[in-house]
Amino acid sequence: MTVFLAGGTGTPKLLAGARRSLDPTDVTVVGNTGDDVELGGLLVCPDVDTVLFDAAGVLDRDTWWGIADDTAETHEELQRLSESIGIGAEPRYLPDDQQTAGRRIARWRRFSAAGEFMHIGDRDRAVHLLRTSLLDEGHSITETTRRLADAFDLDLDLLPMSDDPVASIIHTPSGAMHFQEFWVANRGEPVVEDVEFRGAADATTTEPVLDAIREGPIVIGPSNPVTSIGPMLALDDFRAALDDATVVAVSPFVEDEVFSGPAAKLMDAVGYEPSTRGVADAYPFADAFVLDVEDGMELDRPVVRTDTKMDDDADAARVWRACEHALDLAAAATADETIDDPSAEVS
Amino acid sequence: MTVFLAGGTGTPKLLAGARRSLDPTDVTVVGNTGDDVELGGLLVCPDVDTVLFDAAGVLDRDTWWGIADDTAETHEELQRLSESIGIGAEPRYLPDDQQTAGRRIARWRRFSAAGEFMHIGDRDRAVHLLRTSLLDEGHSITETTRRLADAFDLDLDLLPMSDDPVASIIHTPSGAMHFQEFWVANRGEPVVEDVEFRGAADATTTEPVLDAIREGPIVIGPSNPVTSIGPMLALDDFRAALDDATVVAVSPFVEDEVFSGPAAKLMDAVGYEPSTRGVADAYPFADAFVLDVEDGMELDRPVVRTDTKMDDDADAARVWRACEHALDLAAAATADETIDDPSAEVS
User: Fold this and answer.
1) What are phi and psi of A321, to 5 degrees?
2) Given an 8 Å threshold on Cβ–Cβ distance, is B125 in contact with A84?
3) Is the reported ipTM for this assembly greater than 0.90?
4) Closest Cα partner for B257 from B273, B233, B281?
5) Which residues on B lie below 8 Å from A73 (Cβ)?
6) Chain A residues near residue B78 by CB distance under 8 angstroms
7) CA-atom Rg of chain A in angstroms
8) Which of A38, A63, A35, A37 is nearest to A47 (CA)?
9) Cβ within 8 Å, pair B153-A116
10) How many alpha carbons fall within 13 Å on the CB side of residue B30?
11) Angle at B277 between CA B273 and CA B278, to 5 degrees
C-alpha cells in the first residue's frame, strides 16, 4: 500500500506517473478538502475531483481540473443572466447565517451561483450535484466519495481527509476570504497575513485514513505545503499518525523558486522560509526528500535528487522512481540502519 | 391591467394568445408555486418558469416546459452516474429533517439529484441555480423572480403567489407524495385520496399580488383548478381579495371531459364534480365563464362559448377574445347591470 497525500496538482501529477508502476489496488490517495467550496448550493471538491477525474481517465490535462471536452452551457448561461442583471463574476460569499444553516459539511465555504466565479463544466456539475445530494441523503463525504469513485469505476482508493468541515481561510489586509476567492477570483494577488484552517480544532480525520497511514508508506508530492497539505496537518490525529509512519516528500521548490502556485507567499505568511528548507521544516515527520537536481540545499534528512519538473507522465514516472529510492532510504532511516550514501540521484 | 392566475399549461397558453392584443406592460401574471420542487439543492418553479420562458421567447413550445434547443449534459451525466451506482431514476425524497433545514422556501419539496427524475436542461438549470442563490443571498422569491424576469428582459409582471412555502402534497393509498413525484415520476397514475396544500394555513400572499388583484380584472385560463389554482385559493388573503374582484375563468373541461392533465382525478378527490359544473363550484368568486362550444352545461353565471382547444397562438387569440367578451359580461354582472344575452358565442 502506498498512500499519497494530495492537493490539486503536484501530487496528482506524481500519482499519474506512479500508477505506471504501482498496482492501483495498492494505492490510497488522501485528498485535501480544505479548499472545497459550496457554489450555488453544490459542494465542489477541487482537489479530490482532480484525482477522481484523472484516475477515471476523463481529467482535462491542460488545466488539471474539470472534465476533458466538457461543455459549459449552464455556467455560460449563469454568467449571461448574472451580467444582464448587473451582477459581475466576482465571488458572492453568502451571509454568515447562511454559512452554517443546513448542510454541516458546507460550513464557511458557501458562495452564491450568481456571477459564478469558478468555471464549472456541465458534466463536472453533475458530479457536484450527485455529491451534494448523497450528502443530503445522509452519507458522509467519505462514503459519498466512495460512491462517486464507483460511478467512475476507479481502481484506487480515494479518501477525503475528514468527514468534518475544515475550510482554508486566507487573511488579507482587506479581510478574510475563502481560499478559492483568494486563488481563483483574485489570482492569488492579495497580500497574505495569515492562513486559517477554520474548523480544524474540532475536526478529526477518519478511520479509513488512519488505517491507510498506519499501513503506509506515505508519499507527499510537490504539493503546496500550506493550503494543500496544511489542512491535513491541522488535524491532530492525522498529524500524530504521520509521526509513526514512513514519509517521503517531494519539494515543490527548487531552492527558493516554486514551480507554480501560491506556495511561496503562503509559506512566508505562516512563518516558514519559502524554500525547500522551509518545506523540510513544515514536514518534521518526513523521513526523506526528493529534490530537484538544481536544488543544492542541505537538509537534515536523506535526499534523492532528480529533475522534478513534471510536464508529462514520463516526467512523473521519473519523479516516482526517485520517490521509490527515497522510500528505501526513509525505511532504512526509520529502522536506524546506516545509509552509506544518504544523497542519491535518479535520472 | 389584466391579471392572469397561472398554472403550468392552460393559462400560459391563453396568455400567449392574449399578448397579441394586450399591452404587456398592462399584464400581471400570478404564478402557482405549490408545484415547486427542490431538486439537488436547486429550487425549480415549473409554473413560473413556463411563463418566464414563454414571455422571454425561449420556451420549448413542444413540451411547454424548459428552454427550446437546450442541451442536457448535466442531467444525462447525473442519470449515468446514478445508474452506475445502482440508483434508478425514481424520486429520492430527502429525510424529514432535511426538508426543513436551511432554506425556508424549500420546505416539504426537497429531492435528491441522485437519479434526477425531472428532465432539467443545462440552460434551464442556470435559472434554478441563479434563483436558489438569490434566495440564499436573502431575497424573497418575489424579488428573485423579478430579477430573473429582468435577466430575460420580460415586458410583463410575473409574481409568485406567495413568499412563503406552500407545497402541493398528493395523498395516495401508498402514502403522501409531492405533486411532482405524483405527476412526473408516477405519470399521475396513483389513486388520489386527498390533496393537501402544506404550509398554506401559515402562508399569505404578497402585497404586489394583492395590489394586482385589487386593480384587476382577473383571468383564470383553462388551468387545473386543484393543483394549479388551488394553492392560491388556499391562501386566505388571496381568496378574500378575489371575492371583491371581477373574475373570468375558462373551463379546462368540455362538460366532463378534460383537455389534458390530472384535473378530473384531482377534483374528484377533493369533492368537486370533475366537470365544468365542478369548476364553477370551485370558483364561486368567478363572475363569468368561457366554455367550449360543445359544452352544454348550464351555469348560474354568464357564459361565453368558443372552441377552447388551444393548439397554437391563433387558437389562444380566439379564446382570449371570448375572455374579453366574458370580462364585459362579468363587469356588467358585478355592476348589477341587466345583461340582455348572458350567453354568447365567439368564433
Assistant:
1) -60, -40
2) no
3) no
4) B273
5) 70-71, 73, 122-123, 126
6) 126, 129-130
7) 20
8) A35
9) no
10) 31
11) 35
Instruction: DSSP letter for A106, please.
Output: G
Looking only at the bridges linking them, the beta strands covering B167-172 and B194-198 are antiparallel
Q: Which residues of B touch A95 (CB under 8 A)?
A: 137-138
pTM: 0.84
Tell me how far apart the alpha carbons of residues A92 and A326 are, in angstroms, rounded to a whole number.
Answer: 45
Cis peptide before B217 (omega within 30 of 0): yes
Eight-class DSSP state of A103 = -
3-state secondary structure of B247: strand
Long-range contacts of B288-292 (CB under 8 A, 24+ apart): B288/B248, B288/B326, B288/B327, B288/B329, B288/B330, B288/B333, B289/B248, B289/B249, B289/B250, B289/B251, B289/B326, B290/B248, B290/B249, B290/B250, B290/B251, B290/B319, B290/B322, B290/B323, B290/B326, B291/B251, B291/B254, B292/B251, B292/B254
**Rounded CA separation B216/B233 (Å):** 16
The helix or strand, by DSSP H or E, that contains position B3, with its residue range, turns out to be: strand B2-6
Which letter does DSSP use for residue A315 in this model?
H
pLDDT in tens, chain A (347 residues): 778 787 777 788 887 877 878 888 888 888 777 776 666 677 666 787 788 878 888 888 888 888 888 888 888 887 878 787 777 767 766 666 666 666 766 677 677 767 777 777 788 788 888 888 788 777 888 888 888 888 877 787 888 888 888 888 999 999 998 888 898 888 899 999 999 999 999 999 999 989 989 988 999 988 889 988 999 999 999 999 999 999 999 999 999 998 878 889 999 999 999 999 999 999 999 999 999 999 999 999 999 999 999 888 888 889 989 999 999 999 888 777 766 566 678 87
